[in-house]
Design brief:
Layout (H helix, E strand, L loop, with lengths): L4 H6 L7 E6 L7 E7 L6 H9 L8 E6 L6 H8 L5 E6 L6 H11 L4 E5 L10 H6 L6 E5 L6 E3 L3 H18 L10 E5 H10 L7 H11 L4 E5 L1 E3 L8 H18 L6 E7 L1 E2 L2 E2 L2 H9 L8 E4 L2 E6 L4 H14 L4 E7 L1 H4 L5 H8 L10 E3 L2 H10 L4
Parallel strand pairs: 2-3, 2-5, 3-4, 6-9, 7-10, 14-17
Antiparallel strand pairs: 1-4, 5-8, 6-8, 11-15, 11-16, 12-13, 14-15
Length: about 375
């Protein structure tokens, strides 16, 4: 399928930062924790040890994104996180905003479950077990300071008041019903995280609202869990100064979310000129070339996968790799928009996006019949 030039250009996202260092093991990663950081040198020395006490140092993954810090945040973080086997450090050339930093981290995440936490560990990291556990029944889990079981230790009453007023305004603008949109303690199933952050556009503090709104639009289940939260001295949040631009971002995202970057997609026709491969063989070849958790829908004569957070050039390389592995198949490359995913016939793909990756490579595949697959391809414009 020939790519529309307009979308072809739009599918190339802004650079997601420079990877400064990567450490990894050969084991499959269960959980990824993304930490956006901006001028946090004075706060992470006491915060990071508490995080390390609550993760599996050998199996979990930490991704720290330095959002253009002017201090020694990156160097100190590399020292403090040295005990972690799976660790990646990303540096943005300039301060872009918390949303941009989290998006950069999520795009590099390898875990089947992905969370992001504030660098100051204002939400006690001992709550990560409960946060990740909520993903057994939901695609998105939110730490919520307004939960009846949450404990709050805040020296600045204006922050509490700001949070409550802002959340009421957000609920009236977006129609969301969540109790707390701004707590920096959220987790996602990997396919959902990759798609939501690919579609998101806001780079500042209001990115949380946009992510939750997109999840709601795509019929993802959203769960809330209590947190033990403390107001850590040195926060970059300025309630009075930040409220107006944050609300402006919320209103902009409500109006423009359908204009999000399109997602690269690959369609495989496994029965060409009489030659035919079984779905299991096709999926096996795809999984060896894709990231763990990339959503796949398969049927007797083919398969479709989405590649969120990847640009056109990277998707083309994956297509070429698959063509060498599956010479008897016809593989086409196309683009899918957020609006297309809302079509009723896109239900199989949404199911794959909402799946939780399991221990086997084919666990996130959604299997359907040829008729359902045809309707899906038509709705996504790739038939």
């Amino acid at each position: 399928m020939r790519l529309n030039r307009k979308y072809q250009a739009a599918s190339r996202p802004t650079p997601l930062g420079q990877v400064v260092e990567t450490r990894s093991s050969a084991h499959r990663i269960e959980k990824t924790i993304v930490i956006p950081s901006y001028n946090e040198e004075t706060r992470i020395s006491s915060a990071f040890p508490r995080l390390l006490d609550n993760i599996d140092l050998a199996k979990d993954e930490i991704i720290l994104v330095d959002d253009g810090s002017a201090d020694g945040t990156l160097d100190l973080a590399r020292e403090l996180l040295s005990p972690v086997t799976n660790c990646t450090f990303i540096q943005l050339a300039e301060n872009r905003g918390k949303g941009a930093a989290v998006r950069a981290g999520v795009s590099h995440a390898q875990g089947r479950l992905i969370a992001f936490v504030d660098a100051d560990m204002a939400s006690d990291p001992s709550g990560l077990t409960r946060l990740f556990g909520r993903l057994e029944s939901c695609e998105v889990a939110l730490g919520t300071r307004s939960h009846p079981e949450s404990t709050i230790n805040c020296r600045d009453p204006s922050r509490v008041l700001f949070g409550r007023v802002f959340n009421r305004l957000v609920r009236s603008i977006t129609g969301l019903s969540v109790l707390d949109t701004q707590c920096g303690f959220k987790a996602f199933r990997a396919p959902a995280a990759q798609l939501l952050f690919h579609l998101s556009q806001i780079e500042g503090y209001a990115f949380d609202v946009e992510i939750i709104m997109l999840a709601s639009k795509l019929s993802m289940r959203i769960g809330e869990v209590p947190v033990d939260w403390a107001d850590i001295k040195g926060s970059h949040v300025r309630p009075l100064l930040d409220s107006a631009p944050m609300l402006a971002d919320v209103m902009r995202s409500v109006a423009t979310w359908r204009n999000s970057k399109p997602i690269e997609a690959l369609t495989i026709q496994s029965s060409v000129n009489g030659a035919r491969m079984g779905p299991i063989d096709v999926v096996s070849a795809m999984r060896s070339s894709l990231r763990y958790g990339d959503p796949i829908v398969t049927w007797p004569k083919g398969a479709l996968c989405l590649l969120p957070a990847l640009d056109h050039e990277t998707a083309t390389l994956i297509r070429q790799r698959l063509e060498s592995k599956l010479p008897q198949c016809q593989i086409s490359q196309s683009l899918v928009t957020a609006n297309m995913l809302l079509h009723p016939s896109s239900a199989p793909m949404l199911k794959a996006i909402r799946a939780i990756p399991g221990p086997r490579d084919d666990d996130t595949c959604v299997v359907c019949d040829d008729v359902t697959a045809h309707d899906l391809l038509v709705s996504l414009g790739v038939a």
